[in-house]
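Checklist before submission:
- one chain only
- standard amino acids only
- sequence pasted in full

Submission:
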Amino acid sequence: MVCLLLLSPIAIALPEVLTTGIASAASNCSYESKNAAEWHKEVSSFNLTSSSDGDLIAFDDGDEMGDSMGGGFWNMDMGDNIYNSSELDSLRNDFHASFEVKNDSASGLRLNLTTDYRYTFCFVTHSENSSEYLEAPLVDFYLIQEFDWELYRNDFSMRLWEERDMLNMIPPQWRIGSWMPYRDVHTYEGERAVDFSVSLDHDETSGALFGFGEEQTQWMYLIVDGWDNMRDSDTPAPHRNFTVDISIMTEERLTLPNYTVSCVCCGLFSLLVAAPVILHSRFQSAGVDSHGTQVDLMPMLETEATKGAPPPPT
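Returned file contents:
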């Protein structure tokens, strides 16, 4: 009974784990437009681009206005100086967006992903003006966290640095300020169309040092990359503008509490330790008669009454 109690959560979640690999195929990249997520409430946009004189301009939340900063050392260190601090509700509805991505720029969506949902993302690129004679360019798609988003913006601001090619001599894991895709796997480079699924086992939050202070939500960023970033495996800039369609499908899923892993592992180990003790105690008690029946022992062959007289002394 204890084994069944410990293993039942795994048995319940096993069908979902086995079907995770076909989540994209099951969704078929179709979304419910009736209950679509709302702009600036559950989803916001961003755009990293540069003006004609090389200054970095970042548009946040789909605004037509942004902050521009001068070049040089300040621009290199601080990036676009916009930290995307506006609040977003947790994404629980499907969503679709189409927008243009300029050459040598990056655009995408800022999201607040949550647990109890599986998110399927579908990207499709098109040549600008739906040209039938020009194939859609190969671009890069990334899903990153807010911490890496800060590093990504710094990388974008340094793309015109003359000594930037020297980074190729340093292994990626030793590069200072290098950004990484979410869980080190959600990077899709050199693609015209791609779809993938993500499920969170806990909400992405951060707090002050030693847990003091109020927790803050860590946003997730879907990036359509149209420039040559610091990754060695990325695709160079396409040298032309293009459009992209992004569809997000949401699906409720069963989420087991994190403590079930500890319960299962510790429970199985405890059973291995306790099994010999239980078997030994049951073996010892198997021959004990609970009624306490008295059994006569075999009498001695010789007693004091039957002993012969000792021989007389000589």
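Reviewer check: Residues 2-259 form one domain.
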